[in-house]
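ugh ok fine here u go
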Amino acid sequence: FGLVAFAQAFIQYFAVLTDFGFNYTATKDISVNRENKQKVNSIFSTVMTIKIFFTVVSFAILLFFVYYIAKFKEERLIYIFTFIMVVGNTLFPIWLFQGLERMKYIAIINIVSKVFFASLLFVFIRDATDYNYVALINSLGFLFTGIVALIVVFGILKIKYIFPRKAEIKAQVKKGRHMFYSTVAISLYTTSNPFILGIFTSDTIVGYYSAAEKIIRTVHYMLSPISNSIYPYIGKLVSISRKATINFIKKVTVWFGGLSFLISLFIFIFPNLIVSILLGNQYTESIILLKIMAFLPFIIALSNIFGIQTMLNFDYEKEFFYIVLIAGIINISLALLLVGSMQHIGISISVLITEIFVTIATYIFLHKKGIKIMELKNV
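structure:
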């Protein structure tokens, strides 16, 4: 399990490259131009062309790692299987569905895919030696989702691919670069944690940490449809009324923050029960990690509202990048300092401190700009 988690963490760097921040910049672009079919076709074609190019480059880099670097050469198959996930992500234009506010397609495709391929794990995985097939089945789920999404894009939404001009490619790269820098910085305190553990400790330690983190991230993924659906709406609302946008964000903060707080409180009170039910008795080492990270869903929910939903939609991309870059540096520094003596516990403390910093920093920045989200008198 630890090896699978390490492979996913490593491959996630390639996913960051191929996304290139388009999940935010292209979503906003599509949202603003959704009534102009020709413009939507142009944005879709340009972004997909860039993402496919980056995917090819990423695979070439992966081949170098798995054939020439000992750490990856020994288990090259699992990294190649896991990379199929990147291909699936490239083919699935989630930014297009979000920008057009056609979220039902995302929901249907994801539910069918996740249920089917999760079922295959129970059919084909029999013992620990089948770990390569865990990576393959998970990745095929992403690939299937991407292919079906493209069928919907071309068949139902009637989007057309138009070979982009060089100027259009340059323009989209320019739009996405600041968000790309930000996602790279964010990966320094998300993806990098299991990766650092994998380099300096053992696969078993990575497994304990990744199991606890997966529970926390699952809560985040459960809440992400809310944030994904409101992001393009806020982007469009900003262009209409600043005051209405801030009032809407205040309401989202109350409900989104309140729900995530209750979930976090439940995790903090019942970590033993959660680990016992979801992971099993062999993961008792994950209990303390889960307790340390219990309030991350609440903290991340707030930082998502302050950072992604508000700062990006109010065009503070550069400032957001500086905040997450500092956060990434803080996490890497703390992780390297603590991993030797405290291993997975040290990494858990590091990510908690880092996420708290991001939430506080984004809130203070917005407050100084006159965007006072936590003043609830107008809600």
